[in-house]
Amino acid sequence: MAESPLGTLEWARADNGALSFAERATFRRAALRAQLAEIRARALTALAPVEGTSPRADTAPPDSALTRTAYSLAADTYSAPLLHHCLRSWRWAELFARRDRVRFDPEILYLACLLHDLALPNPVEGHCFAVTGGIDAKTRLLADGADEATATRVAEAIAAHMNIDVPLELGPEAHLLHAGAHLDVAGTRYTALPTTALRAVLADHPRTGFVTEFGGHMRAQAAAAPHTRAGLAWRAGMAIPLKRNPLNKLEAVARPDEPIGAPLTLPDGLTGVEAGPPDATPVLLLHGMMGGAWQFSWFQKALTEAGYRSLAINYRGHHDSRPVPALGRVRVADYVRDALVAREYLGAAPIVVGQSMGGLLAQVLAARGAVAAAVFQCSLPPAGIRWEGARNPRTMPAHIPAGLLRRPLTPNRAELDDLIFNRIPAADRPAFFHRQVPESSRAGVEIAYGAIEVDPAAVTCPTLSVSAAHDRLVYPRIGAAIADRYRGDHLEIPDAGHYALVGEPGWDKTAARIIAWMDERRGRGGATLDN
Predict the structure, then answer these.
(1) Which of 136, 243, 332, 406 to pair with 313, CA 20 to 30 A apart?
(2) What is residue 252's DSSP assignment?
């Protein structure tokens, strides 16, 4: 009769998860191989996490009676550090599933991750806490109405997670729980996930107090059950990777304000965030280069409070929006088409507010008669107005190779600190930087060399050009020239930089002045604008 695989409930039946002498030797060898493989993986990436297109890190938990009950159990059982550990393990597991294209049952994975440490805080002499916890989870799930198959898969995943390796053959949920928990504890496969995703999860579920508390629990487990996987791992030096886990040093930054509206997917796969009353005056929000709908998280709150409906979109190739095979070759005209898709979704002609490059797109839409009014916030200029800032956009050394080869422009922290983040507190800048994404070099070249034509005579709607006194990317005189071009209004914000509307201190004052201008041009019924 074939032996049951190590870590399964059937294997644990005889000795409550204690390892035989031969199994202990095999476990030690597997642990050594895993440590060497991890060292090699980190060395190959020079200790730097992978960057580039990131799996989304904002997964919502599956909603069911079982998951809600399980969360209540976890919240009542765990301390805050352990609860955050279990939730981080679930988020890591989801990210690994997307990266490795593993198909799984979302409810089973969430339940297994959430409940995998049920028995950790209470050691039982001679018993493996993973096995005990798996059995306890199964009993509770069955009592809460889970079917036998679901409860068993959760229990098996929990029981197996202390193995050195959990192949897919033991179940996708067991494999992913193991990956997520081992990343969170020991940093295993840390280099496989982009820093942006890692930081986003840590912002939601901080590691405060985790290393100390988890280490104390593992020490107690090793004392109570030295021949279990947990006992052996701790006595073999598990404290070292726990303390040296790169996640401990990764700067856990707060995200910019979370959007208040509802995420949605538009035709052609574009994504966005919609907020405010559905029958109110619509406002279309167009983001800047390397940005996304998140740039309007603050402004959307102010718009909603003022009674406007707003839609902030992500252009193709940005964040989770429509993928493109060659981002570096995307043209400004492609982004204009994205904006027009969003405008059609809104129905009535909206007010358009564009940030930076989005301001230039707003000018194009205004010239096409597609909007009722337009606000150009720290806007890049059209043909006929030379783009001027603290650095010449035509000769930035970091961008020349990408422009020549039509490769994406990648965010550069020093450059962004100088040109865009200069009025954002230094402690907050990492949060903004890690929301930036690669951008089309072709679009950048088109704008820098004045290739985007806008006929000023075709712009007949009310316009407001907003400049910032300390904008180093686009000098405020450019905003004044844009206002003159369209015979519109000009507003210069003192003590503000390029992100005057994007979370800088005083953004709310900028928002209030823009909304006041919009209100003046909105009809008494709140649904039309005077031209």
Answers:
(1) 406
(2) -
